[in-house]
Write a structure and sequence with these properties.
This protein is of the alpha+beta class. It contains 13 helices and 17 strands. Strand 1 and strand 2 form a beta hairpin. Helix 4 packs across helix 7 and helix 6 packs across helix 8. The model has no long low-confidence stretch (mean pLDDT about 95).
Amino acid sequence: MKRTKINLLLERDAGLEDVLVNGWVRTRRDAKTFSFIEINDGSALKNIQVIADATLPNYDDIRKLSTGSAVAIRGVLAPSQGGGQKWEIQAKQVEIISLAPESYPLQKKRHTDEFLRTIAHLRPRTNKYGAAFRIRSELSYAVHHYFRERGFRYIHTPILTGSDCEGAGEMFRVTTMDLAAVPVIDKHTDYSADFFGTEANLTVSGQLSAEMFALSLGDVYTFGPTFRAENSNTRRHAAEFWMIEPEMAFCDLEGNMDLGEDLIKHLIGFIMDHCPDDLELFARFVDKKLRGTLDNIVNSSFVRLPYREAIAILEKSGRKFTYPVSFGLDLQTEHERFLTEQHFKKPVILYDYPKSIKPFYMRVNDDQETVAAMDILVPSIGEIIGGSQREERLAVVEARMNEMNMEKEPYWWYLESRMYGSVPHSGFGLGFERLLMLITGISNIRDVIPFPRTPGSIDF
């Protein structure tokens, strides 16, 4: 007999004579002639109640079921006789797949997020994390659906790379060499003996590769894991994280900002429509202001503001910030949240940043001082998107690389793309985990990714 997921049973309009459900026991309590068993299979926030009658042949074993035990239930889906649920299962057969010992760590009480990170292999069984990772799954689907409906092509960009897209050098090296006997020539590592014959790293972005396909296929996107060896233990940073990165040919900065705003609104609206029960959990128990925040983002026109004007607003705010504010310095989270939560009270798109704080590939504006970069800032999070119109002019790209003392040889293919049919094009990166933090109200990135990778932590 084919099993049915609990979420499908809970949505039914009529009962069923015979159902098979598998799941894990959340609670069990005994009456005189039967047991109430609450089970969940991970498909829904709500459990389903099973009534196991004392006449069942293995009833003595059923009464030994503990929290965390796994069972298979066959029975009749019938209207519930108790309050709080529409349906219950009147068991005809209870198969005990495994019994969890009393040491099972997820008992019927609230656990701290810090504790649950130490048992990341079990925390998806809790209400909060089950909801978070169901939303993550639905949000992943929504990303692909959004771009497919708009004619974008999905590109699988490399995870292993010889290029540093951001130019910051915060990359994880990948090698097959014996670390106890690394060959050295003139005090420099000799990578000619390594697997690729040159230095290799885990990528920080799929952008440069996606650009190549945008200049061939038009509108493309990549969505996958990226890595940054930044020794940061803040609530917004992880060493492994996922990025949504669209690239569009024949698109300027204005079109780039339009897409970023529309994408954020669409994805939030999708989760509000498709995950109401899971979202309600976060609105009730994690962030009481969550509904208002999400409604405001979906229904607002984002403010569009030059970086220079944002600096002026911050300087005149009268606020004493921890980090200094002046033209030529990058904004910090406290500045971004002031603009979105207190000054404008809505999302803000900042654009035209000083070229001195931005990578080589961003298009230089006519003032020769700024580049056509844009960041989208949202309440609670700060920066959630970073992007730009790309520099399509070969001579300007080369000049920028010279300014930054970059070696051109590893980027020969990138420079060649500016020789053969180069066109204006734009793109951005949307931090997937930061979007999940925004949607759920969860305040730490470690709690929206299944197995977080942070400095000093690579368990599981």
